[in-house]
Amino acid sequence: MKKFLALILALTMVFALAACGTAPVETPDAGAPEADAPAGKLVMGTNAAFPPYEFKEGETIVGIDADIAAAIAAKLGMELEIKDMAFESLIPAVAGGSVDIVLAGMTVTDERKESVNFSESYATGIQSVIIAADSAIATIDDLTGKVIGVQTGTTGDIYCSGDYGEEAVKRYDNGALAVQALLNGQIDCVVIDNQPAQAFVAANEGLKILDTEYAVEDYAIAIAKEDTELLANVNAALAELKAEGKIDEIVSKYIKAE
Ligand code: GLN
Predict the structure, then answer these.
(1) The CATH number of 126-216 is which of 2.50.20.10, 3.40.190.10, 3.90.25.10, 3.40.50.1000?
(2) Is residue 193 within 6 Å of ligand 1 at its C-beta?
């Protein structure tokens, strides 16, 4: 009997070890092209201070982009991991292979296309201007000579430095910090994408959005140039999610129609 028990124990351990061995401990794809079907971990880079696309609920990163990435990962049979970093680090991170995809309310631009590929677009963004509720700024032309807060490396940063000059622009690591500077009276306005602008205005007293569409843009997923198979798989998953109404469902979970 003792021997039998010992055998059972030994067998249990063998099985337990075997189970450990087959656990999903895949090394993250470091950007090297992979021939076989996708599996393992899908690492997403984002800047989680951009509500409602990405923001923190406690320690968890949630939002439209996090949900879309999770839905794509589920379709590809992969496990999603999200890495939070400065917006300006995202393109180098995906081009260098430390993340596989970037979803960050990221606008497709020709300059970024020189470093990465973009998926089909999944949303539209509009550059907006946040001002103090009692600001004298009434139109986009009134920004001349004003101090404009932007997030470093964003399209808002690029357009404003081009249109109003480098000296007019004050750069912040994220939108929340730029909005804080506006609330403190350190800058005259913040140029940022419309949805985060609305979220920041809703969360803070004394701010409003200028009635203008400074620029209209497409958001898409950035993927390393050499990851063409992943790009094809992500586009296929996105097309299915769009057809299933899943993207609209995710968007309306975070953006309530007025
Ligand atoms: N859409 C803007 C850009 O791509 C801002 C994105 C962001 O700040 N997360 O530059």
Answers:
(1) 3.40.190.10
(2) yes
